[in-house]
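Input structure tokens:
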């Protein structure tokens, strides 16, 4: 992995992990600003527990070496969470604030695309330099 890509991966990954750790911590501790924000978006107080535990668990998986298959789930869960946050803000009339979560989504995509080989799931993924073998794909689909 090129040094530039490795640095970009870690900057994006640490950014996502930081955002999710802070917001997850605020949610699980029922901090007043988080509870006010969840209420504004129409979510019940217990949703903070679900959100907080999910975010903190995802951060652990994202930063933990190995566990590539679980990382796929963490990336997917974070993407769903961030897109849902943007949609919730939009539907609650927050205007341009609805775009704020998309910054985290952009960092999440950068982290996902630039992750090192040892942080990738082997199932269904081929190296970027390898072209698909259409005949083999066709034969396995039959």
């Amino acid at each position: 992995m090129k040094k530039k890509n490795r640095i970009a991966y870690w900057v994006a990954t640490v950014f996502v992990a930081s955002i999710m750790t802070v917001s997850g911590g605020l949610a699980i501790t029922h901090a007043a600003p988080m509870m006010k924000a969840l209420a504004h978006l129409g979510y019940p107080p217990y949703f903070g527990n679900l959100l907080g535990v999910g975010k903190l668990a995802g951060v652990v998986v994202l930063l933990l070496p190995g566990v590539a298959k679980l990382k796929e789930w963490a990336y997917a869960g974070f993407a769903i969470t961030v897109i849902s946050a943007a949609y919730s803000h939009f539907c609650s009339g927050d205007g341009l604030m609805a775009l704020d979560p998309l910054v985290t989504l952009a960092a999440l995509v950068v982290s996902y695309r630039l992750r090192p080989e040892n942080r990738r799931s082997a199932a269904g993924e081929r190296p970027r330099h390898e072209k698909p073998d259409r005949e083999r794909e066709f034969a396995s689909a039959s």
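The chain has one domain: 3-115. The CA atoms of residues 68 and 119 lie 5 Å apart.
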